[in-house]
Amino acid sequence: MLEILGNALTDNGLIVAFTVVGLTMFVSYFLSDKLTKGRIHGSAIAIALGLVLAYIGGMVTGGEKGLSDIGIFAGIGLMGGGMLRDFAIVATAFGANFSEIKKAGVNGVVSLFLGVVLSFIIGVGIALAFGYTDAVSLTTIGAGTATYIVGPVTGTAIGASSEVITLSIAAGLVKSILTMIGTPFVAKYIGLNNPRTAMVYGGLMGTTSGVAGGLAATDPKLVPYGAVTATFYTGLGCLMAPSVLFLMTKAVFG
Amino acid sequence: MVIYGVALLSICLLSGVFLGDLLGNILGIDANVGGVGIAMLMLILLAEYLKKKDKLKAPTQEGLSFWSAMYIPIVIAMSAQQNVIAALDGGPLALTAGVAAVLISWAIVPILSKGGNTDETLENEMTGGDQRVRNIR
């Protein structure tokens, strides 16, 4: 009997994912309502629960893809994977206002460049403090602090060790997860309640999943504005880190 | 028909991803440069254009709204497949770098976003913008 159930779930992975996410959201909104009287948004709790599930999945399987490494939950990987995520992000743009985007355009572009360079410098500084002195490792960790995609792309391009590349991915993951969880809490202190600030936010933070998840938990109407800048960040980072930023780091630290 | 909206969305995403890859190729990097962002801009412009011509019927909009509403559930599925263990195992360096980057960036946000008329813009956005694109509800 158990085997039949197992097969039924494995064969319908995406449907299982809809069920798991639906139940997670139900529990989260219930907790949000009863325990926090709605002060902590249900979707913020749901994202945190998702990360807990990912942790459990990683513990059980030792894999890298969280809950989706467990056979019957493989559909989570499809539902939360790049294809549907990008599809849904684009859909949030439906109803966004183009004149808002134009108005915030200059701020958005400035925040993009500043965001990449700032994160890079912070990463390099921290890596220095932890005893790394060679330009290749410093650059890779700095790039990873931008996003966990820029890190390995840069590290591979300039020939960093796999240990340093793993560190750079971890730094980017920490940034992404903290942005996802922290955004709704910090939103009111940094004035994150309008399209212009959301675009600046997307450009500065840069992690698409972190920004989009964080904004979704803050105010779903802001998602398209944050995402429209954040999606350029990784590309810009991949462009700048192995070139300009690496040369500058090399010039300073040899 | 609902599928028209879904297809419109698909066309935008596919063109955006293609242009993003093309841009990355031209710049000589193995990455998609802003593909999703390009797709979003396309969808906004197309939706406003079709809306003005009265060609964006309610069922078509439903196809778009559905996927827009599926966004948060998809984000939750995304968070459930992050490599949380690696992030925590990365040790103090990764943790410090990630946390510092986030905290400092947060501090910069208000400085960079000065000049926006917050109340007015949010109000406008809630109603679906000047074109009232989201008049389905």
From TrEMBL, chain A:
Domain Malonate/sodium symporter MadM subunit N-terminal: 7-253
Protein name stated in the entry: Malonate transporter subunit MadM
Transmembrane segment boundaries: 12-31, 43-60, 72-96, 108-130, 164-186, 198-217, 223-248
Keywords for this protein: Membrane, Transmembrane, Transmembrane helix
InterPro entries: Mal/Na_symporter_MadM, Mal/Na_symporter_MadM_N
Domain of life: Bacteria
NCBIfam families xrefs: malonate_madM
Pfam family, one: MadM
